[in-house]
């Protein structure tokens, strides 16, 4: 028995020595270069591209099984700028053979040097990689009524077939070129370098990636792992840092759960300037901002956790110039989706980020009837995603400025379910007062229906209108309620279907630009038949009540009333939102005397009704002479001098023409109104 074992060991050892000798000797006597034409032919057939090896081809079998080649060319199809699709200066890989028997992969080196990858899209939109692999062969006919065998899932815990992994030198260097003839764009990544350090299964793998994007530096460094023997079921820690363009500095830390596909990551972005980042890329901001110093400081951070079923963001923090915001969010059931968020902002001036007035785009010209008739109508919006949406969110803003309007303590809570979106509360403080609203949008039908209810308390109207519209037209404290509803999603449709009611009340204020007392006192000056006085006119009031109703876009006031110690004014009529036209009658009445307002006579009972017509942008004012005469028949006509001032077309009579007598003017006036011959 001992002799048998001895001979077995001798024979086994001899065979091992013989195998090693053969593995060492074969590469010395075999000319592998003679196989280059065969390799070139097989690769060309597999890729459908010309392929050639201009450099040496070396083979080793023991103790390291390896192959190295140089100057590899994989060509481009005709019609592209570069001759090569892929060029490799040098490729060298060495793997130790004997440890493989025990599932121990030991790689001495994996080196890929001088890689040049050229990606192109020609002017016809064709890319140089879409036909890579050659023409597909005919698909063999499948056997009838034979079901494909079900794929069995890999048992948990089997992992990769390795007990150990070690890589000595892993390095890839090269460049990448992207040419887009359609967009006339050319992007180049140079000095590309990827190196892995201490590659194993039981220790973190360090890596170092660097490149230049169009001459601007990019770098990604950090550690990943350890991977463990089964990376597909284990936990993989991450610690990464990305720097780019000498401007961006971002870190990502956390872990990935491979089996459950969960992640838990902390993202931090150091302060940077978006303007400088875009400038480094040879780009500029898409729009100019009113404040050239806007978008010069941004930083943010958050913790992201999730899985394919749910994602949550917590601890969100962002700085935008002088504004600081915190936020959190959650999303699940992505097919709906089901969303929730909380957002708080200390302050922001949105006017800084809007285009400056001189840079705002002009309104697009309305298409001609022939143009609109030739185009197909736009397809209606699809509200199905909003019908499925489940939403629960809240927004709070400490101070907000937009379009000149200054608002504080903005609060909005929004909820959505089953196609109904509700905002309640929706409120803010502004100009020493407050506004509170509720809003509903119902998209369950084909056309959305909207309802808005608003209540205002103690708002100073003068500063608000001045900031919002740049006009000094009214003063006083405003309060009131507005309830409106509409159907549709286009501006014209919304105007035509707008219905509702409201009641606005202004207290202790003034209408600036109109002197109603002066209209009673002096019609000639009121309607600009003489040079206006230097001091801007206004009408003080103790109360201005404006009830109104809206029916299909037509605003109707049954009696807007202005009250002052000496004057009462009632306004009736309509304002049409659809065609933006006005049809109003302002009926002032003196209740005592105008002394103290520049008049020295008693004017009790005298009325000069005013008709307001025209459009919102160009209103027209004129005295209602017919109403004046009809009212005068009851209350007593004004004296002749007053009528003379009202009907005279200008402050001066044309040269060479005798002024008509007062009697003739009155007769003509009555005849024009159908009251005389």
Q: In percent, how much strand structure appears in the residues? A: over 45%
Total count of strands: 30
Percentage of residues assigned to helices: 10-25%
Rg over CA atoms: 42 Å
Describe the protein.
With 677 residues, the protein is of the alpha+beta class. The protein is 17% helix and 46% strand. It is built from twelve helices and 30 strands. It has a 30-stranded mixed beta sheet that branches. A hairpin with a 2-residue loop joins β15 and β16 (323-332). α11 crosses α12. The longest helix has 28 residues, at 2-29.
Concise structural overview:
The chain is of the alpha+beta class and 677 residues long. The chain is 17% helix and 46% strand.
Reconstruct the topology from this structure.
Blueprint: H1 2-29, H2 36-47, E1 51-53, E2 57-60, E3 64-75, E4 84-96, E5 104-121, E6 164-180, E7 185-197, E8 199-200, E9 205-213, E10 216-224, E11 235-244, E12 248-257, E13 262-272, H3 274-280, E14 298-306, E15 310-320, E16 323-332, E17 338-349, H4 369-374, H5 384-388, E18 390-402, E19 405-417, E20 420-430, E21 433-442, E22 449-460, H6 461-469, E23 474-487, H7 491-496, E24 499-512, H8 516-521, H9 523-526, E25 538-551, E26 554-563, E27 567-576, E28 581-590, E29 610-614, E30 619-623, H10 625-635, H11 640-647, H12 662-672
Parallel strand pairs: 5-6, 17-18
Antiparallel strand pairs: 1-3, 2-3, 3-4, 4-5, 6-7, 6-8, 7-9, 9-10, 10-11, 11-12, 12-13, 13-14, 14-15, 15-16, 16-17, 18-19, 19-20, 20-21, 21-22, 22-23, 23-24, 24-25, 25-26, 26-27, 27-28, 28-29, 29-30
């Amino acid at each position: 028995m001992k002799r048998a074992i001895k001979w077995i060991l001798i024979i086994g050892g001899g065979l091992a020595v013989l195998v090693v000798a053969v593995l060492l000797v074969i590469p010395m006597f075999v000319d592998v270069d003679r196989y280059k034409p065969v390799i070139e032919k097989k690769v060309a057939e597999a890729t459908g591209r010309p392929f050639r090896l201009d450099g040496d081809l070396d083979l080793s079998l023991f103790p390291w099984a390896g192959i190295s080649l140089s100057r590899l060319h994989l060509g481009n199809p005709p019609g592209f700028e570069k001759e090569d699709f892929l060029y490799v200066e040098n490729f060298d890989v060495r793997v130790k053979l004997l440890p493989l028997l025990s599932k121990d992969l030991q790689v001495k080196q994996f080196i890929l040097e001088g890689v040049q990858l050229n990606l192109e899209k020609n002017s016809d939109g064709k890319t140089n990689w879409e036909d890579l692999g050659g023409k597909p062969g005919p698909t063999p006919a499948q056997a009838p009524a034979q079901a494909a065998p079900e794929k069995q899932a890999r048992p948990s815990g089997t992992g990769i077939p390795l007990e150990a992994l070690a890589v000595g030198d892993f390095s890839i260097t090269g460049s990448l070129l992207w040419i887009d003839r359609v967009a006339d764009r050319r992007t180049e990544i140079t000095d590309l370098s990827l190196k892995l350090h201490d590659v194993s299964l039981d220790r973190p793998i360090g890596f170092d990636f660097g490149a230049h994007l169009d001459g601007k530096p990019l770098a990604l460094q950090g550690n990943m792992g350890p991977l463990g023997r089964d990376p597909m079921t284990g936990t993989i820690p991450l610690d990464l840092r990305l720097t780019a363009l000498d401007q961006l500095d971002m870190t990502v830390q956390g872990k990935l759960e491979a089996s459950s596909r969960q992640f838990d990551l902390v993202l931090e972005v150091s302060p940077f300037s978006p303007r400088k980042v875009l400038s480094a890329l040879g780009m500029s901001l898409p729009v100019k901002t009113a404040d050239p110093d806007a978008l010069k400081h941004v930083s943010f951070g958050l913790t992201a956790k999730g899985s394919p079923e749910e994602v949550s963001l917590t601890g969100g923090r962002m700085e935008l110039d002088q504004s600081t915001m915190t936020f959190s969010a959650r999303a699940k059931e992505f097919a709906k989706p089901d969303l929730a968020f909380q957002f708080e902002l200390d302050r922001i001036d949105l006017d800084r980020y809007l285009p400056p007035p001189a840079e705002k785009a002009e309104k697009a010209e309305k298409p001609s009837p022939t143009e609109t008739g030739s185009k197909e109508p736009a397809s209606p919006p699809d509200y199905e995603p909003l019908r499925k949406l489940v939403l629960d969110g809240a927004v709070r803003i400490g101070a907000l400025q937009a379009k000149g309007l200054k608002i504080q303590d903005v609060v909005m809570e929004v909820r959505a379910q089953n196609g109904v979106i509700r905002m309640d509360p929706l409120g803010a403080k502004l100009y020493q007062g407050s506004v509170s609203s509720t809003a509903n949008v119902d998209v369950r039908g084909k056309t959305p229906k909207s309802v808005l209810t608003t209540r205002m308390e103690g708002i100073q109207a003068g500063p608000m209108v001045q900031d919002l519209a740049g006009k000094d037209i009214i003063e006083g404290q405003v309060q009131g309620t507005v309830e409106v509803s509409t159907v549709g999603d286009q501006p014209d449709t919304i105007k035509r279907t707008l219905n509702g009611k409201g009641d606005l009340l202004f207290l202790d204020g003034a209408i600036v630009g109109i002197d109603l007392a002066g209209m009673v006192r002096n019609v000639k000056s009121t309607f600009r038949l003489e040079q206006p006085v230097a001091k801007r006119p206004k009408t003080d009031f103790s109360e201005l009540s404006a009830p109104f109703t809206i029916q299909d876009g037509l605003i109707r006031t049954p009696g807007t009333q202005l009250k002052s110690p000496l004057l009462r004014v009632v306004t009736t009529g309509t304002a049409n939102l659809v065609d933006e036209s006005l049809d109003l009658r302002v009926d002032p009445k003196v209740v005592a005397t105008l002394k103290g307002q520049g008049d020295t006579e008693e004017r009790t009972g005298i009325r000069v009704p005013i008709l307001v017509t025209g459009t919102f942008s160009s209103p027209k004012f004129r005295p209602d002479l017919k109403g004046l005469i009809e009212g005068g028949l009851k209350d007593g006509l004004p004296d002749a001098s007053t009528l003379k001032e009202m009907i005279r077309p200008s402050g001066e009579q044309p040269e060479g023409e005798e002024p008509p007598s007062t009697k003739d003017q009155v007769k003509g006036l009555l005849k024009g109104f159908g009251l005389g011959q």
